[in-house]
Amino acid sequence: MSKIYKEIGIGFIPVLLIFLVFLGVNVIPILFVSVLGVSLFYMIKGRGGAGISAGGGDRKSKNRTPSYLTFDEIGGQDRAKKELMEALDFLIKHEEIKKLGIRPLKGILLTGPPGTGKTLMAKAAAHYTNSVYMAASGSEFVEMYVGVGASRVRDLFKEARTRAVKEGKDNAIIFIDEIDVIGGKRDGGQHREYDQTLNQLLTEMDGIHTNDAPRILIVAATNRKEILDSALLRPGRFDRHIEVDLPDKKGRLSILDIHVKNKPLAQGVSLDMIADQTFGFSGAQLEGVLNEAAIYAMREDKLAIEQHHLASAIDKVMMGERTDKETAQEEKERVAYHELGHAIVAEIVRPGSVSQVTVSPRGKALGYVRHNPPKDHYLYTKDYIEQQIMIALGGAAAEEIFYGGRSTGSRNDFEQSLSMVRNMMDSGLTSLGIIDRDMVTKDQLMKENTIILDALMIRTKELLEQQRSVFEHSFAILMKEEVLSGETFRKLFDDSVSKSA
């Protein structure tokens, strides 16, 4: 019907304008007012559609509770899941906790690095509590127009209550991802829209009556907790702060087991080895490793994923895809000596830690050594950090031994070394003792930094000078094959050491 009216209007309006011109009427003011009115109408209509309204079809379809996702389907994070489920029990067992005078939680803040599963845990929380699930990103509340964000916060809470009543559920979970966008510390500046949005969120959380049905729980996620306003973090708003950290080896293996269920693995593939080699990987990166491995298998027309596909996938996630850079022979030789320097030092100070040595360009790197940490580390001694610095300096030291100077290829190695020296200083592991950086001059810090790195560079060169035979035996094979596995490299290393002994 609206289409018919639109066609009648399109045909009638030009005829009316022509008739008015024929009568001698000035139609320019009429055209101007008409255009202005139509423009305002569509602007208001567009703003209404973009807001978070109870009748928004897109919002409703986006916020359907993902009933298929449970905590069992989230690998690793056993501690975080247990803590979250305990907090959610306050929502489920409200009658029991009322007897003990416990106030139900109003908000749960999930913090941790990107890709660790914070969003997945919020979805699983909705399934666990049989709640209406609504999701929004912090950026959805930010507009250049003052008051729009606050209005959207009100609409979000209103819609949560409306949907819970409509679907006959006692609880609703509102998930706000990247809450730091609207929840940053208020500094009294001119960001009135951000402040009004945050103030409205604080007001709504204060207004949540936990004994009234439907009950609302706010779950928020951020990887920058330190910038959040203190008013958000206090009890009565976000009562629980749950750290969703990078998984340990057991967690990584659990995540791999979940994501491999729909992927065929070849006989003899060891996921335990992949869990070892992916120290520091998030859940999202581990899923990416398996996905990339499947792509490599498809490229080779294989029916199952093999171990070398997984190894290549780890390299791709860490370094990027292989490039078509054609390096000159002299440059390739320098890269080979550089990478062997890293690998030899690593094998000396931490036997068995080298997983692969390659001179194949990948991402921005012309070559690299992939290390296989024997076990997860979270506390580091001075000796351990110094060994890590020596491994990082091994490439530059090898170039100095064989070429008499360094190249720009050591830039990233030096950045890592400087970062580790900074960590030593902040941890009181240098001759400066326990320091406050604001109380120490830059000259003192630079002097100590130079002393540490120069001493470690001398030690590294001395180690490599004693292993020239390892360079000689490994160099030719690396130049020919372009890739040395950890096992092959260790065999060459052991053979060279035994012959020179």
TrEMBL record:
Residues 104-248 form the AAA+ ATPase domain. It comes from the Bacteria. It is found in: Membrane. InterPro entries: AAA+_ATPase, AAA_lid_3, ATPase_AAA_core, ATPase_AAA_CS, P-loop_NTPase, Peptidase_M41, Peptidase_M41-like. Its main location: membrane. Gene3D superfamilies: 1.10.8.60, P-loop containing nucleotide triphosphate hydrolases, Peptidase M41. Keywords: ATP-binding, Hydrolase, Membrane, Nucleotide-binding, Protease, Transmembrane, Transmembrane helix. The chain crosses the membrane at residues 12-44. Pfam families: AAA, AAA_lid_3, Peptidase_M41. SUPFAM superfamilies: FtsH protease domain-like, P-loop containing nucleoside triphosphate hydrolases. Belongs to the AAA ATPase family. In the C-terminal section; belongs to the peptidase M41 family. This is AAA family ATPase. The lineage of its organism: Bacteria, Bacillati, Bacillota, Bacilli, Bacillales.
